[in-house]
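ERR on first pass: missing label on line 2. Operator R.T. fixed the label and resubmitted. Corrected input:
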Amino acid sequence: MKPSLPELFLSFLKIGAFTFGGGYAMIPLFEREFVKRYKYLSEDEFFDALVICQSLPGVIAVNFAVYIGLKLRGRFGALVSAIGVALPSFLIIMVIATFLFRYIDNEYVAAVFKGVRVSVIALVFTAGFRLFWRHRHLYGVFIALMTFTLVAIAYVHPFYVIVMMGAYGYLTTKIREVVSHDAS
Amino acid sequence: MMLLRLFLTFVGIGAIAFGGGYAVLPLFERIIVDQYEWFTRSELLDMLAVSQVTPGPIAINSATFIGFTLFGVLGAFLTTVGVVTVPSILITIVSVYRERFKNSKVVQAIFRGLRPALAGLIFASVYTLSPDVMVDQWSYILFLIFVLLLVKFRLHPILVILLSAFLGLIIYWP
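pass 2 clean. output:
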């Protein structure tokens, strides 16, 4: 069974409007809506979509919307799904942005944000730490350390470092394959 | 001209934003703060905080925020569309060759290098953002408390931000 374009749009709009905590918090909701509730997708198809969306650059929730929309309703499906998931953010942020920088010079608001900035640094640090902890083997620590040094200390542009480390991952895996192939 | 540059900048950011969420922060920092000087580091952090406590993907929220603050509704539209342009094209291509992509040894090998690099990239941002945030002994105490609440007690990020707003108001009461 396939959803109509308005149904697809509303499903994504709902998830975009009511999920706090960013794209990763949306994944269980996508599963509930598309796999469990409406059965538009099988569990396997859902998992495939997830793997593919995480292996590409971009915003995971929008990637997912484009992929699912495309699969269920073609090009227009992809379009309405992407608009659906991003529209609530777009509208809410514009309202807040109108006010934030108008009041940021108010000393009470400034006090609030002095505290808030610390929690954002703590959040970013925690996100980095969790990622680091999953790759704490020698190879992972080496890459993380190299990246940190290149970007933070040597001030190389993150773009070049991302390309470099992707190439490094590819080459080392390739070399290991060749070596273990020769040995056997 | 500025609008075109804004759009292309976000197309570029979208094209290399692997990992989603906070992984875009190092890119925003280098390109939007250092390269074009559109915002200061503190302003970027304030926008990130708002992006976290409002619904929706953090990268979309902050892209909209940046675009809107610079050039109003048109700016917001350009940054938001820009950041999803390249990924959407890639997904359209990849969905045709789904099986081949999913089992691709090349993609897996590249990600072996990319994932730990993202951790290093995020730590680099923490390092370069700190001087603007860690301004007194209170900042360090709060930082330790927040990390503990997040890692040890698994408190929801939104609750941590709300708590930090409350504590900030009390500690820095004018």
